[in-house]
Design goal:
By secondary structure, the protein is mainly α. It has four helices and no strands. Helix content is 57%, strand content 0%.
Length: 104
């Protein structure tokens, strides 16, 4: 009896950005969609990081290295979650721009 091995379907969100373009398991539309989402997440990270900077220095603010690392982790997770939800809409705009037909 010949039994084929079980294979887990490939999710675009599980692939690192630098390996996205050369992955043969994804369609061109999946690659464009994920690249657009990841680009939106990068922009959201920059916006969120800038919004967390204090304007007036304070002795009550925790500026330790551990605090900075934690803040970066929270910012990265929040940006990824926001981009995956699709509520922000930038990824859809990027995707539309990348998939529209060229006018000769």
């Amino acid at each position: 009896m010949n039994v084929s091995p079980l294979t887990k379907p490939v999710q675009a969100t599980d692939i690192a950005p630098e390996r996205l373009a050369n992955n043969p398991a994804l369609t061109e539309m999946q690659k464009i969609h994920e690249a657009s989402r990841q680009f939106e997440a990068i922009l959201l990270r920059q916006i969120l990081a800038a919004s967390q900077k204090t304007v007036i220095p304070s002795k009550f603010a925790d500026n330790s290295t551990a605090s900075e690392i934690y803040r970066d982790m929270v910012t990265n997770q929040l940006a990824d979650t926001m981009s995956k939800s699709g509520a922000f809409g930038l990824a859809q705009t990027f995707e539309h721009q990348l998939t529209r037909p060229e006018h000769a």
